[in-house]
Each structure stands twice: as C-alpha cells, then as structure tokens.
Amino acid sequence: GDRMWHFAVSVFLVELYGNSLLLTAVYGLVVAGSVLLLGALIGDWVDKNSRLKVAQTSLVVQNSSVILCGVILMIIFLFKTQLLTLYHGWLLTLCYILVITIANIANLASTATAITIQRDWIVVVAGEDRSKLADMNATIRRIDQLTNILAPMAVGQIMTFGSPMIGCGFISGWNLMSMCVEYLLLWKVYQKTPTLAHKSAKVEASELKQLNVKKESDMKPAEGVQLIIEKDIAGFEPQEEKEVGCAARIAEPFITFRDGWVAYYNQPVFLAGMGLAFLYMTVLGFDCITTGYAYTQGLSGSVLSLLMGASAVTGIMGTVAFTWLRRKCGLIRTGLISGVAQFACLILCVISVFMPGSPMDLTVSPFADISARLFENQPLPTIASPEPEMIFATGMPNLLNGSIAPANSDPEMSPEPVPLISVSLLFAGVIAARVGLWSFDLTVTQLLQENVIESERGIINGVQNSMNYLLDLLHFIMVILAPNPEAFGLLVLISVSFVAMGHIMYFRFAQKSLGKQLFVCHTPDPKAAPDSSPPGNTSTV
User: Fold this and answer.
1) Residue 337 domain-assigned?
2) Into how many domains does the chain fold?
3) What is this entry's stated membrane topology (predicted)?
C-alpha cells in the first residue's frame, strides 16, 4: 500500500496542478523538511517506547493517513470543476494543502516504521550472526523491490485505463486491508521472538554497562561509540533524580535534537552515513520529480509503472550482488565496488542531456513557471484543460510549460515525442544504476546496524534519515527554482556531481577503516570493520 501511494501521489499532483512539476516539488519539500526537523525526535520516541507499541502505532497512523488522503483526492477529482468556482479557486488550494499535510503525516509514520523494523527488530531477530543479518537485510530489500514492481504496475494500469478517481479508491481500499494483515504479522513476529520484549528506556544504563563489559572482554569498541556510552552512563542518573519543570519540557525536544546530531557525528561510520546521504541530492531516482518529468515528456502512467518495475528488478539484482560481494570481499569493500558501479551507470544520464530529444534549453528562464503561477493574478490551482478525465487516460497534453504550441486536442502533437534517444538513455542509466545503489545502501545500512548500540539505535537512524532528507530537501529546492523540463538536464549534471561526492566520502571512510588492506579483496571481515580494525576506527571521526 505504501508503494502504491508513493507512485500515485506524484502523478496525482502533476495531473491536478496544470501538469507542472511545481506542486510535486512543494510536496517533496514539505516531506523532506519535516523528516529533517523531526527525524531525531522520531528516533528518540522509538528508543523510549516498547517495540510493539512503536510498530503498531506507526503502522496505524501511516495507513490511516493514506486512506484519508485517497478519500480527499477522490472528492477533488469528482468536484474539481465546482471547487474551482468557489472563492476564486482558493478552496481547491486549501484541499491541496490538506492532502500534502496528511500525506506528510503518513510519511513521518512510515519513517518510524522503517526505523523500528528495519534498523531495530531485524538486528534483534538476527542475534549475533552478522551473515544472517546481511541475508535478512537483502531479503527485506527484495520484498520491498518486488512490491515496487507489482504496486506501480497495478495502480498504473488502473489509472491509465480507468481514471484517477478509481485509482484513489483502489489505494484506499488496499491500505485498509493491508493494515489489518501487517498488524497481525507484526504481532506474530513479536510473539515468536521473546527478545523483542526486552527493551525499555529505564533499562538503558544497564544495557550500556553490559555492552561495555562484553566488549572489553572481547575487543575494544570504536572511539565514537565509547564516547556515547560514557556520556550516557554519566548523564543518565542525574536525569532520573531531577524534577522535570515546564521550561525543561519545552527545551527537551531541542536538547534531543542537538544530542542526536552530536552522537551521529561521533559515530565511527559517520562518513559512510554522509556518503549515503549525498546520494539523495539527485533527480535520478524514481521519486515524484523523476516521475513528474517523465510524465511531462509524454510517458503514460502505464509506461511509467513498467519503468518502475524494471528499476525494481535491477534493485533486486543489487541485493543479490550485495550478499555475494560481502562474502567474497567483505562489507566495506562491497560499498566501494557498489559505488563505482553506480557512478559508471550514471554516465549514461550525463550523455542523455546532450542527445537529440533532450528538452534542455538554458535560454528559457527557469523562473518563468514560478512567476507565471505565483505572481500573476491566477490562483494556485490551475487546470490545464476542461476535460479532466481525458487528460490522464489518453496521450499527454501540452506539458512543457509553454515551450510547445499545440493545444490538447491537436493531433499533430504526436511528432513531439519522436526523438526518444535522450529519454531512453536517461532511464537506462537510472535503471542500471539501481544495482550499485541498492548494494551500497545495504552496505551502509548494515554498517549502522553493527556499530550503533541498541539503546541509541532509534535516534542515530533517525538522524541518518534527517541527513538523507536534508540532501533530499536541497534537491526539491533545486527543482522548485527550476521546475521547467528545459532545465532538467542541468539538474541531472548537478545530481551526478553530488553522487560522486558521496562516494568520495565513503572511499575516505573505507581508507581510514582498512588502510592498506582496502584493495586486498580476499577474505571478508567476519565482524564489523570498526571492531576488526581498531587503528582505523580512532581516526574515522
């Protein structure tokens, strides 16, 4: 259900707002900004509450929000002509704001679900077996990618051959059913794994002391982790004894925010996490921006769903590559190889910018769309055509923000999408790069799982999500400043530059952790790099 919504919401927003990328960029900006500000607080909430309560609450909030958004969108699609006439269209604008707000709540709940299940539950279920943890991470990602194939295909066909309203109804109904099934499955897993129940904020200090005793008898912990442990044990008892006043309660979220970011910076895998975050500063992923851009180039919902399915297949190949490379070369080297593979594939996207059919035209002002829509007398909700149902189900109308003259009904619009070399190379590069991307993502995910102590798993991963969304936020701001498809080629070049910087950061982390052994690819590390290479750890941060 979450994958269906992720695919459909961007197409809905592009369709409703005059086929421009501006509203999808605003939606992405709100989502990214919210996780950036609240990521540490969400992670802290995950740490301080029981695992079952966190999982169940976030699941119910997430699915309920998606269902409500679907119902509101159905009403908009049914009555948008009437809504446009009320209060000069500002009532429809209010509906858009409501949809984006509720969808943002759904995304925050989804973030909490991902932290607790994929960063905490899975580590507890795997126990001390790191090979099992790697296999479970890869399996979860394969399931995720399979849903990426099936969900967009189903919704894309429904919206293309049916109508957007039917698509909204289908997504709402599916989320209602899936919420019940997921709730039951979570309960089953919780019952079958008794160790999941052994967690509470009160036991945090004893957990840390046990971890210290165990690690000191075995091996030295990473310097960054040691600092966190000492801080926690020193600061835990005074917090218990003090009476919490009103001012302290107001300041608590800000203190949590600050402490979370400081703790994240002190992690031995800080540079690896930053490298992953830099990959989010890109328009070369199947998010609402890329989906919206493809939509402006004349690709239907059906074709888009097939492309997303192809990207999911290469994502599954990436999970297979991750498990194989980890066994052969070790965890850290796997991330290095994956980064090189991803960057090599993205060269195709750079080439596509200069090929025939590319809409890139830097003579067109990137601010023309903003000035036309926000500073003229027209209200926000501008509908491109009085025939709402036909826009979505048939070919694409005039979507290039005034760069093409023909009207929606003009049959001579068909020659426009003839040069397919540029679009084909772009999506070939994006789809092929998913192999390296998902293998790299799994590498950094496991590095965080292996090197972050249990009592801080939530807050550190919450800050990692915030860091990811910070770069994601920058990419949405970039699109808001240049929303026309003519400027998309420039965004592609900027995106590839940030991907390169991210992999350079990871290379620096790998070099510090393994030193001269970095290019010796013969035996995988049985344990996390920080444990097996103490000299590298102390210089990592």
Assistant:
1) yes
2) 2
3) Multi-pass membrane protein
Which of 175, 196, 217 delimits the end of a domain?
196
Q: Are 476 and 28 in contact (CB under 8 A)?
A: yes
* Residue 358 · residue 533 · CB < 8 Å: no
Is residue 458 domain-shared with residue 344, that is, in the same domain? Answer: yes
In a domain, 524, yes or no: no
Task: List Cβ neighbours of 190 (8 Å cut-off, separation of 6 or more).
Answer: 51, 52, 55, 196, 197
The pLDDT of residue 23 is 72
Tell me the C-alpha distance between 319 and 326, whole Å.
11
- Neighbouring residues of 513: CB distance < 8 A, sequence distance ≥ 6: 268, 332, 529, 530, 533, 536, 537, 540
Could you report the per-residue pLDDT of 168-179, keeping only the tens digit for each? 888 888 888 989
In sequence order, which residues have a C-beta less than 8 Å from that of residue 415 and are 6 or more positions away?
none
At residue 20 the predicted structure's pLDDT band, cuts being 50, 70 and 90, is low
Distance of CA 446 to the CA centre of its chain: 17
Read off the pTM.
0.70
1 vs 109: CA distance, rounded Å: 14
408 domain-assigned? no
Which residues constitute the domain of residue 20? 1-196
Question: Two tokens at 186?
Answer: 């979570």
pLDDT of residue 528: 41
Based on the domain organization, do 187 and 295 belong to the same domain?
A: no
Task: At 416, list the tokens.
Answer: 């426009």
Q: What is the CATH number of the domain that holds 438?
A: 1.20.1250.20
Sign of the torsion angle spanned by Cα atoms 525, 132, 3, 184: negative
> Which among 386, 389, 383, 396 has a CA at the least distance from the CA of 304?
396
Exposure string for 460-492, b = 16+ CB within 10 A, e = fewer: bbbbbbbbbbbbbbbbbebbbebbbbbbbbbbb
Burial class (CB in 10 A: 0-12, 13-18, 19+), 328: middle
- Rg of the chain's alpha carbons, rounded to an integer? 24
Q: Which amino acid type is present at position 47?
A: D
Tell me the two tokens of residue 43: 């992670």
- More confident position, 154 or 279: 279
One domain for residues 17 and 150: yes
Give pLDDT tens digits for 339-358: 999 999 999 999 988 887 67
Query: Do 360 and 506 belong together in one domain?
Result: yes
pLDDT at res. 218: 42
Q: Say whether both 180 and 282 belong to one domain.
A: no
349 and 473 together in one domain: yes
Residue where a domain stops, chosen among 196, 230, 255 = 196
Structure letter (DSSP) for residue 117: I
Instruction: Answer whether residue 139 shows pLDDT above 50.
Output: yes
Q: Which of 347, 359, 367 is nearest to 490 (CA)?
A: 359
- Is residue 534's pLDDT more than 80? no
